[in-house]
């Protein structure tokens, strides 16, 4: 018991947890294993994965160290209860309890919170179960951009419907700096772009596609053959370059480039509903629509952190403002 109530133990645990938290902030968290091996090399990347430094806040040893610190604070607080005298003494005790609650909240938050980024086309619905939000569905009803007179973007707005596992539902708009907040969820407007739809026909296969702007469609991976797409919403026909006069879809074209590695074999422009030939490939441009990039967050333990800070502030006030 004396070991668990040691102030030296608390200091060591705080230093270790602080160092690990710093490592977690420097090392990208939650990426696929291939990311760490490609970015850090097989040896260092393998060590990061082996010691769970790619997911610090969910690792068993981080939670164990945090739990040990919590027990240490709990024992210290229990021993102080017997010695409490006056309002300042109770304030000191409340301060310790506040730190303990904040620690518990931080551990639970690290273990339970979820944050994912998704890109969804207008009209699409997405089951968020595989993203860590069971039986929750998000639907993008519409998306629009507000412009200044010079056609610089002023605001991005997604109109969404969120239905939770408890059957609760809300329909709201999400703007930049104005997230949707509903039963613990926060959904932020992050980005947007164009989805380009069509198909590619060769002698032996038909390849349908719906890809974001400036993405590639592999055609023959053994030869490095691919199609690179770029959307021009308001193509300037008087220009000799691939340029758009405005961000509005007034004269849309799909620029399709047949690539071999980094070499351009052939390039053409296609109107919506039309088909063009690039060597042995026929490319049809069916249409386009907006997609919206949304960040979805949920932290069930956030209220515990708030409660801990309230207790901490109350303890500080009682300890230093009252005589």
From TrEMBL:
Keywords assigned: Cytochrome c-type biogenesis, Membrane, Transmembrane, Transmembrane helix
Residue span(s) of domain ResB-like: 7-84, 88-215, 278-319
Pfam families: ResB (PF05140)
Record's bilayer topology term: Multi-pass membrane protein
Main location as per UniProt: membrane
GO biological process: cytochrome complex assembly
Keyword DNA-binding recorded: no
Compartments reported by the entry: Membrane
TM annotation in the entry: 59-78, 90-112, 301-322
Protein known as: Cytochrome c biogenesis protein
Organism annotation: Thermanaeromonas toyohensis ToBE
């Amino acid at each position: 018991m004396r070991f668990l109530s040691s102030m030296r133990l608390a200091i060591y645990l705080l230093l270790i947890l602080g160092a690990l938290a710093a490592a977690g902030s420097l090392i990208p968290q939650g990426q696929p294993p291939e990311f760490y091996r490609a970015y850090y090399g097989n040896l260092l990347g393998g060590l990061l994965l082996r010691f769970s430094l790619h997911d610090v806040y969910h690792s068993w040893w981080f939670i164990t160290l945090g739990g040990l610190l919590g027990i240490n604070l709990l024992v210290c607080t229990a021993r102080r209860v017997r010695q409490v005298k006056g309002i300042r003494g109770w304030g000191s005790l409340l301060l310790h309890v506040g730190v303990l609650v904040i620690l518990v909240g931080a551990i639970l938050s690290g273990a339970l919170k979820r944050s994912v980024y998704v890109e969804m086309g207008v009209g699409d619905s997405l089951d968020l179960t595989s993203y860590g939000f069971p039986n929750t569905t998000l639907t993008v009803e519409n998306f629009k951009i507000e412009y200044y007179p010079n056609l610089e973007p002023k605001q991005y707005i997604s109109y969404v419907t969120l239905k939770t596992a408890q059957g609760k539902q809300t329909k709201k708009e999400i703007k930049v700096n104005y997230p949707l907040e509903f039963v613990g969820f926060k959904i932020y407007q992050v980005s947007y772009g164009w989805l380009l739809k069509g198909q590619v026909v060769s002698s032996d296969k038909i390849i349908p596609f719906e890809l974001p702007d400036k993405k590639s469609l592999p055609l023959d991976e053994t030869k490095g053959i691919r199609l690179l797409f770029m959307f021009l919403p308001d193509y300037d026909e008087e220009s000799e370059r691939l340029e758009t006069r405005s961000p509005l879809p007034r004269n849309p074209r799909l620029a399709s480039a047949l690539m071999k590695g980094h070499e351009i074999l052939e390039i053409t422009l296609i109107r919506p509903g039309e088909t063009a030939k690039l060597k042995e490939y026929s490319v049809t441009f069916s249409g386009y629509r907006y997609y919206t990039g949304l960040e979805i967050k949920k932290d069930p333990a956030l209220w515990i952190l708030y409660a801990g800070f309230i207790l901490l502030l109350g303890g500080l006030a009682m300890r230093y403002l009252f005589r």
